[in-house]
Amino acid sequence: MTLETHVREAFEELTSDPPAFQTSVEDVLSAGRQARRRRRVRLTAQSVPVVAGLSVVAVVGVTALAGSHHGGGTSTVQFASAGTQHSARASTAGSPASDAVQRAVTAASPSGLSLDIQPIARAVESEFGIDGTANDGNGAGRVYVVFDPIVGMLELAPCTDPEFVAGGTCTSTVLPDGNTLVLRGENGTTYTQVMAVVIHPDGTGTTAESDNGTFPNPPSVHAAAVAKKRHYGLEHVTRAHPTYTVEQLGQVAVAADQAASQCVATNCNGS
Amino acid sequence: VKPADEAAFLDLYVARRGPLRKTAHLLCGDWHHAEDLVQNAFVKLYVAWGRMREVDGVDGYLRQTLVHLYIDETRRRRHRDTVMAEPPSRPWPEPADASDRWELIAALRGVPRRQRACLVLRFYEDMSVAQTAAVLGCSEGTVKSQTARGLTALRGVLAAADSMSIATLGGNPT
User: Best interface-test mutation with B: which of A2, A8, A12, A15 has the largest number of B CBs within 10 A?
Assistant: First the structure.
């Protein structure tokens, strides 16, 4: 018998009589929620982004904003939704709330952008929104917009969180309705991302992300198949920069947030 | 946890926590510590859930996270090594008899973490050298050398204990 065989048999024997679990499913969920609450709207980011201070004029229902708190150049961005090409899939997987977000994202996206987005709903902690890609002709990049309705889920001042900023530029602007718009500039080395977050005073709000690449497959989680396969789902860089600029993404976030908030307030009866 | 729902995460947790805890147990030698490692791996997965786009990625992510959590404990000089110097809650069994297996179990305790990770991934998870290298984030050559050293360490410990004839021991790390 070889040493390898001894080792294999010893490993099997060592694991043949495991004790009962001490932690419950709820323990893991609770710990996950705490970690996520701390790290929400943060990237696994590494490097140096490039975005100036900003103020944004939102498309839907938000009047012009005062200048940026950071005193940077004021860039007013407005888009027409006419002419935007959309191939949004049918909303069979969505809900009235995620459908409302999808419509808002579509309307607030830059003209000429080709969107392939689908609603997501019943996600963890009741969040809802859209997931998909946006293509301006230079390659499809992932776009993801989600509303978190759980109080306290979002950091109120993520620009003060080095994990969120991750060495990049981060601007925070108080909107006329009292919410805060946070714009986090392009971040990462190879796979990059910009992020815009509308944060309500109670810690609810909307997060929007735009990437310079995509994931190879749509979401799919089936526990029964997990044990059989072992390799990684890697991100694919498809373009030099994210499809949306951070300013554009800020408009999308504000529009989506308004649609989602209204939907939540009315139990989505008005959407 | 973005695209998938919480129920899917829980299904995954229930399905995978057992096997992962066994792997963790082989790494750290303590069931409670192993359970902590698994829980921490799932917490990291929970945070990253929205970026996991396929089952294969989820399982690989969990395994990789688990192994790195274990190895990084040494790097961060955290409490576990100290704790492990004391009797753990349910440690690997003491070598209660003279069988080769129990001697080997005792010998595993003396194998450095990265080498032990190689042994566990190669001979418990039945991973190839390439797969092990991917999980550990190192070259295939490093996996081969670490595995060989791990086996050599076992061989040496066992020989020192004079409980197993070196002549009966082989081992091809690749």
Answer: A15
Q: CA-CA distances (angstroms) from residue A151 to A115, A155, A257?
A: 30, 10, 15
Q: Where are the alpha helices (DSSP H) in chain B?
A: 6-28, 31-48, 55-75, 80-85, 100-108, 113-123, 129-136, 140-160
B61, closest residue in chain A (CA to CA): A232
Whether A204 contacts A149, CB under 8 Å: yes
Rounded to the nearest angstrom, the minimum Cα separation between A68 and chain B is 30
Phi-psi category of residue A146: left, alpha or beta, with phi > 0 → left and psi -120 to 50 → alpha = beta
Prediction pTM value = 0.46
Helix (H, G, I), strand (E, B) or coil at A185: strand
pLDDT for residue A193 is more than 90: no
- Contacts of residue A168, defined as CB under 8 A and 6 or more positions apart, other chains included, come to A45, A47, A48, A49, A51, A184, A185, A186, A187
pLDDT tens by residue, A40-51: 443 333 332 333
A31: nearest CA in chain B? B43
The sheet carrying A205-211 orders its strands as: A85-86, A114-120, A128-135, A140-148, A205-211, A193-199, A180-187, A170-174
DSSP-derived secondary structure letter, B168: G
Tell me the average pLDDT across A149-169: 75
Q: Is the ipTM of this complex over 0.90?
A: no
Query: Please, which pLDDT band fits residue B7 given cuts at 50, 70 and 90?
Result: confident
- Residue B58 with chain A: CB contacts under 8 Å: 221, 226, 233
Distance between CA atoms of residues B48 and A36, nearest Å: 9
Q: Provide the CB-side half-sphere exposure for B142 (13 A, CA).
A: 12
d(CA B49, CA A72): 35
Q: What is the DSSP string of A110-173?
A: PTT-EEEEEEE-SBGGG-EEEEEEEESSS-EEEEEEEEE-STT-S-S-GGG-HHHHTTS-EEEE
Average pLDDT, chain A: 70
pLDDT > 50? residue A57: no
Structure tokens at B76: 């961060």
* A231 or A130, which is more confident: A130
Nearest by CB to A3, from B47, B127, B169: name it.
B169
Whether A234 has its CB under 8 Å from any CB of chain B: the answer is yes
DSSP state of B1: -
